[in-house]
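Progress note, sequence design subtask.
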C-alpha cells in the first residue's frame, strides 16, 4: 500500500490548506481527460479521503508511521485494486423528469426518484465492470438505452452526470460547454468514481437534439409503442 502523502506528493506534516491545494493539482493531473487514468484518479481521491481531517491523518500515521517503506504492499498492488473495482451507477430516465415536473438542477433529484415508485427501466442501480462502458453495462443488465453510432460521433447516447465523474474520451462530438454541464456519452464513457448518478435519455435537451443521428432500436421502440 502506497502512502497517501506520497500519492498527493506532500510532506506528512502538511496542513489542511496544503493538502487541499495538492489534491486539486493531483486530481487534475490524474483525470483521464488530461492524460491520467480512472485508476490514478481513484488513487488520488482515496488518498485525499485518508487525509481529509487532522484526526484521520493522525490515525493513518498511527497505523503506518511516516515511513512508507515499512508499509506492506506496493503502488502496483494499490493500482490493481482500483483497476479491478466495479462502479455503482444510479440511473434515472429523463422522461420521468418531464412527467413529474422535476428538473435536472434539483439537488434532491435522485432522492425524489428513490422515494417515487418508478419502473425498473426508469430508475435503479447497476454495477459497471472495469472493462465496460456505461452503455454496455446498461445493456448487459438488460436495459435498452438509446444509441446510434457507438463511437462518440452523435448525441443519441448522451447522459447527464449529476454526481460522480465519468470519462469523456477526446474524440467525441460534444462541445466543451456541454462537458462542463456534466453531459457525457455513455457509449464511450466509463465511471471514474466508485459511484455515479446519471440521467439517461437526454438526447432531446437543447443543443443535443441537433447532434443526433437517425434513431436506433431504443428510439424506434418508443415510436412503435
Ligand atoms: S451512440 Fe453516438 S456517441 Fe454514443
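Output:
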Amino acid at each position: 500500500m502506497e502512502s497517501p502523502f506520497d500519492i498527493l506528493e506532500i510532506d506528512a506534516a502538511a496542513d489542511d490548506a496544503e493538502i487541499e491545494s495538492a489534491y486539486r493539482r493531483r486530481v487534475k493531473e490524474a483525470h483521464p481527460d488530461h492524460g491520467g487514468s480512472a485508476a490514478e484518479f481513484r488513487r488520488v481521491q482515496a488518498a485525499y479521503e485518508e487525509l481529509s481531517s487532522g484526526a484521520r491523518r493522525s490515525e493513518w500515521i498511527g497505523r503506518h508511521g511516516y515511513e512508507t517503506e515499512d508499509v506492506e504492499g506496493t503502488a502496483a498492488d494499490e493500482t490493481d485494486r482500483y483497476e479491478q473495482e466495479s462502479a455503482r451507477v444510479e440511473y434515472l430516465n429523463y422522461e420521468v423528469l418531464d412527467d413529474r415536473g422535476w428538473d435536472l438542477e434539483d439537488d434532491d433529484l435522485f432522492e425524489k426518484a428513490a422515494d417515487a415508485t418508478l419502473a425498473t427501466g426508469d430508475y435503479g442501480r447497476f454495477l459497471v465492470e472495469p472493462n465496460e462502458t456505461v452503455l454496455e453495462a446498461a445493456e448487459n443488465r438488460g436495459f435498452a438505452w438509446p444509441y446510434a453510432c457507438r463511437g462518440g460521433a452523435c448525441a443519441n447516447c448522451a447522459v447527464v452526470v449529476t454526481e460522480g465523474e465519468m470519462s469523456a474520451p477526446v474524440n467525441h462530438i460534444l462541445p466543451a460547454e456541454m462537458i462542463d454541464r456534466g453531459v457525457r456519452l455513455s457509449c464511450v464513457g466509463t465511471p471514474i468514481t466508485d459511484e455515479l448518478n446519471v440521467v439517461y435519455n437526454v438526447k432531446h435537451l437543447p443543443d443535443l437534439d441537433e447532434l443526433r443521428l437517425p434513431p436506433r432500436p431504443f428510439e424506434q421502440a418508443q415510436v412503435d409503442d
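The chain has two domains: 4-84, 87-224. Work on this subtask will continue into the next period as scheduled.
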